[in-house]
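ok posting inputs for the carboxymethyl coenzyme *A job
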Amino acid sequence: MSVNLDEKIFDKGLANTIAAESKMSYIDGVNGILEYVGIDIDSLARNSTFEETTFLLWNGRLPNEQELATLVAAFRAEYHIPAGLIDLIKTFPTDAAPMHALQTAVAALALHDSEADVNDPDANLRKSIKLVAKTPAIVAAFDRHRKGKEIIDPDPSLDIASNFLWMLNGEKPTDTMSKALDVCLILHADHGTNASTFTSLVVISTLSDMYSSMAAAIGALRGPLHGGANEGVMRMLDEIGELDNVDAAINQKLADKDKIMGFGHRVYKAVDPRATYLKTFTKGLAEDTGNLKLYEMSSRIEEIMNEKVGSRGIYPNVDFYSATTYFSLGLELDLFTPLFAIARMVGWTGHCMEQLEDNKLIRPGSNYVGPHEVPYAPLDQR
Ligand code: CMC
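and the output
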């Protein structure tokens, strides 16, 4: 609830606060609509590519053939990561969480960019291209390092999704795998002023730099209430184990007032349209890859949740069916959230560039609820 305090509004969790203006994504949480620059997410997932969607979000319109080719070439020229950064990644403990590794390596990219502190629009676009192009290489390099495998050079003949799978597995992905990943990247590319995007805006609004903003955003994304939920979904499916166990397990969790990962959303009080698309898409992928059990368990969880808490506006969100998709793609559990980061890098960088077009320091107040006029007690009297 909002309370007026000396003409300022106390809005816990900023749930009722509009903190930015943006032309990138539109969310209608009541009717379950998500548009990127006015184009329905379902249409983009069916027809676009991650690269084209990136152009759309960054430029406010779809590219023509030449513009798309230019952006694709710019990404491909930046797929590699600096040798010094590869050396650094090789020093990371092999049991480190990939999100920690990613956050550290993204911050370290600044050390290898002479423009790191140049905040003009052209430099920030160049940095955004580098960040989107290099994040997959960082995630793949750390995964190879922790498994004691050789780090694989990017292949600039491949699109971002296929190149990531190539660097991760050392094998060229099938068209089905590339398409599945590309769709996931499109669906996760942007989502208004979510917690990690807001974090990136707070940082860039101080006129800090893109790398610092992205490292901070990665930190916000990894929490289980945000991007970490896709990992939570997979752990829950693992723990439940079999379709026959679903009813008892979910009912018990609800009785214990546990949150069911992959359900609920701050904005959507209807089904998240990304979940609707992923559900259909994932079914085909799960069938093709022999992971139908996971899909069936997920479907049953959704039915129970609809029956029990649907009337309260708690529906599947994007993370719910992402878990089955990523598992079907053969990704390790703790790479699910880094994959989200690879996609959301587009949204974070786009919103930061937008913020700098008309910047104002983001600095909310807080309502002090501690004591006043407390005398200072010397150490020997406490
Ligand atoms: N399972 C069971 N109950 C739930 C769930 C859930 N997943 N989500 C919300 N509720 C209940 C919650 O217990 C609370 O009940 P009560 O009023 O009786 O205390 C009520 O619904 C409101 O929940 P809230 O947590 O206060 O709502 P919020 O807007 O602050 O939080 C949320 C939204 C996404 C953090 C929350 O729904 C949640 O924790 N979901 C599980 C984690 C998850 O899937 N996160 C991914 C979000 S989508 C992708 C992304 O942004 O990264």
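notes: The chain has a mean pLDDT of 95. The two ends are 39 Å apart (CA to CA).
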